Amino acid sequence: MKLCLLAAILPLFVLQSCKTATERWLGGLTNFKELDDNALSLQVMKMQLQPTDTTSFGYQVRIYPSKTWLENQGPGQAVDFLYHTDSSFCIRAGKACISPVIVQPVNNGIANCYEYLLYFHVEKEIRLKNIELVYADRFINKKQYALKLN
Description:
Layout: H1 2-17, H2 21-27, E1 32-36, E2 40-47, E3 56-65, H3 67-71, H4 77-83, E4 89-93, E5 96-98, E6 102-106, E7 114-121, H5 124-127, E8 131-136, E9 144-148
Antiparallel strand pairs: 1-2, 2-3, 3-7, 4-5, 4-8, 6-7, 8-9
């Protein structure tokens, strides 16, 4: 019985040891996080890039402003969220703040939802620490929101 159990578990250890440290780190990143307060709702979903790519990772971010904020805004609010949010996101690892390589607004067809695709390079200072995705709001309440990713 013990021999059968050992024979079943041993291949799992061998397969796990075949991954590089970066592949294990990328696999440990969270798949979904959500943060809500009275001003907005923020959703972060991990995007599956090439399984063999260990140089970058991506997240899909959705921002839902509160209904009261939407009622008090004029028609130009969408322009701000579509064209002026590229510097609102970063990855914080300790004291380092790494900006995304790409911030792509997405027209998703969901009313009052602003969606972005974020791509980051895997850098040494990111891999060695716990990281957070930081969204620095500039339009609704000017607060910073941080979500732990690992």
